[in-house]
Amino acid sequence: MQSIIEVEQLEKLYKKKQALKKISFRVQRGEIFGFLGPSGSGKTTTVKILTSQLLYTSGRVNVLGSDPGRNRQSPFLGKIGVLTDNSGLYERLSVYDNLLLFCRLYGVADQRIEAVLESVNLTEDMHTLVGRLSKGMKQRVTLARTILHEPDILFLDEPTSALDPVNSARIQETLREMNRRGTTIFLTTHNMQEAEDLCHRVAFLNNGEISALDTPQALRLQYGDRSITVTTRKGKQVIQPNEASADYVRNLMNGGELLAIHSNEPTLGDIFVRLTGRGLE
Predict the structure, then answer these.
(1) Which whole-number Å values give the CA distances from 125 to 97, 114, 152, 168, 205, in the listed order?
(2) Which residues does 184 contact at the CB level (< 8 Å), separation at least 6?
(3) How far apart are CA 153 and CA 247, in angstroms?
(4) Is residue 275 within 8 Å of 204, Cβ to Cβ?
(5) Beta strands in the chain (DSSP E)
(6) Is 129 in contact with 90 (CB distance < 8 Å)?
(7) Are the CB atoms for 69 and 222 separated by under 8 Å?
(8) 3-state class of 280 per DSSP?
(9) What is the rounded end-to-end Cα distance, in angstroms, of the chain?
(10) Which of 91, 100, 191, 209 is a plausible cystine mate for 131, CB 3.0–4.6 Å?
(11) pLDDT tens-place string over residues 63-101
């Protein structure tokens, strides 16, 4: 599979502080790639480098076939979409007029506006002034603007952080649909469940270094407890999966004693804490 983002030995220094410590990774075309870590770990610095907002100190970076630090022209910028905590919306304009402005900038047909507003559940608010919207609604407007031109790569920084569960689910489905149509997504988030639900692979970033990189399932298997918890009418017990325990569980089922059974796999958050000793907040 073709790599759409290539990072090799990437280093970024701010005066004497080493924000990124020679990190390397690749993102495949059509992948949803999670870049996970606590505040101050280097996630935002990495995204700014990949989107040509910041120059790096050393290493090699290739996005869509070229170095973003040397390719700050409109053809490159027109192929990416970037969602950050700085919305840049015009609060005295309506939702519709904000998007109309960007239709003109991207050369996108006006009819695209209604489609993206539907995808972020804002159709009924299209004529509301942005300044009157809640924080979560503004975030959805920003996402609508980010996907307006159907970019090859989406760089999303906490896309559902201010949203309620219903709208979070709506946005996640929108991202899945865009990914099914071929959009590559580079996602940073503190929401480990969101990362597990959306990402094909994840990288853990801590203090400017990548601690682990793999699929969520592979990480759970690598760092997980293979035990199983069974709940019976007498309570819960933890057992190890083997031939004897399989017979035991079968007997519980046949006797109507088994109420529940589940594997004791760790969450991505559990794995991150184990690898780094730090939480994700």
Answers:
(1) 12, 11, 28, 18, 38
(2) 4, 5, 27, 28, 29, 30, 31, 32, 33, 152, 153, 154
(3) 50
(4) yes
(5) 3-14, 17-28, 32-36, 58-63, 80-83, 153-157, 184-188, 201-206, 209-214, 228-232, 235-239, 258-263
(6) no
(7) no
(8) coil
(9) 34
(10) 91
(11) 999 898 876 666 788 899 998 876 689 999 999 999 999
pLDDT of residue 149: 93
Which structure tokens are listed for 105?
């900038």
DSSP conformational letter for 255: T
- Tokens for 168? 């979070």
Set out the domains of the chain in order of their start, with CATH numbers.
Answer: 3-220 (3.40.50.300), 225-264 (no CATH)
The single-letter DSSP state of residue 123 is: G
Total-model pTM: 0.86
Distance CA(2)–CA(64), nearest Å, equals 10
Angle between helices 112-119 and 165-180 (to 10 degrees): 130
Strand pairing of 153-157 and 80-83? Answer: parallel
3-state secondary structure of 176: helix
Q: What are 18-25's contacts with CB under 8 Å, separation 24+?
A: 18/208, 19/45, 19/208, 20/45, 20/46, 20/49, 20/56, 20/208, 21/207, 21/208, 21/209, 22/58, 22/59, 23/205, 23/208, 23/209, 23/210, 24/210, 25/203, 25/210, 25/213
Q: Which residue from 3, 56, 58, 55 is spatially nearest to 28, judged by alpha carbons? A: 3
Q: Which amino acid is at 123?
A: T
| Residue listed under structure tokens 């480098």 | 49
Q: What is the pLDDT of residues 140-188, one digit of tens each?
A: 999 999 999 999 999 998 888 878 888 889 889 999 999 999 999 999 9
Distance of CA 101 to the CA centre of its chain: 27
